[in-house]
Amino acid sequence: MRQAAESSSPFDKLRQDFHAWAKATGRPADFRLLLRLVLLEPGFQLALSIRLQEAAIRVPLAGRLLRRLLWYGATISTSCHIAPDSSIAGGLYLPHPTGIVIGAGTVVGAHATLFQQVTLGRRDPDRPEVPMLGDYCRISAGAKILGGVTLGDRVTVGANAVVLSDIPAGHTAVGIPARILPATDERATGIDI
């Protein structure tokens, strides 16, 4: 997961983000959709900011400052705190980007969907363990994933769930603390969620 999130260029990830948005909205991936997303869609604007921050750090001398300025602007404008050293793969879909927190070192796999008020971070400030999300994870509104938790591919976390332990691929977790529901046949066979 971590290697996939770090190996692609920021612009490859942005292209994957764009196609995720096209698929989610049911619109063709054309220039009109791109223009609409850049101008009118806060979730895509946040994803774009994340990718610009990833590109800015590569600028000699001024990269760190430029990245910090972009991060600050995104944090203020969206009320989201996404740590610059988190690792987020392409295909990110943020339909309602308000109050999302992604802590330092957290790994988010490809084609993740994060709804409003999601928190991915440490469980204890004195321990460095952070979550690792697999590919095609869907984290519902208000969910918290805390500590050194690993989510397998195609995991769904229900609204307001608090995940404190690993979730195997293809399963759904709900409740406080989260309990794992049995895998459905569709998820076990790999159909997109």
Automatic annotation (TrEMBL):
<dbReference type="InterPro" id="IPR001451">
    <property type="entry name" value="Hexapep"/>
</dbReference>
<keyword id="KW-0012">Acyltransferase</keyword>
<dbReference type="InterPro" id="IPR045304">
    <property type="entry name" value="LbH_SAT"/>
</dbReference>
<keyword id="KW-0808">Transferase</keyword>
<dbReference type="InterPro" id="IPR005881">
    <property type="entry name" value="Ser_O-AcTrfase"/>
</dbReference>
<dbReference type="Pfam" id="PF00132">
    <property type="entry name" value="Hexapep"/>
</dbReference>
<comment type="similarity">
    <text>Belongs to the transferase hexapeptide repeat family.</text>
</comment>
<dbReference type="InterPro" id="IPR011004">
    <property type="entry name" value="Trimer_LpxA-like_sf"/>
</dbReference>
<dbReference type="GO" id="GO:0009001">
    <property type="term" value="F:serine O-acetyltransferase activity"/>
</dbReference>
<protein>
    <recommendedName>
        <fullName>Serine acetyltransferase</fullName>
        <ecNumber>2.3.1.30</ecNumber>
    </recommendedName>
</protein>
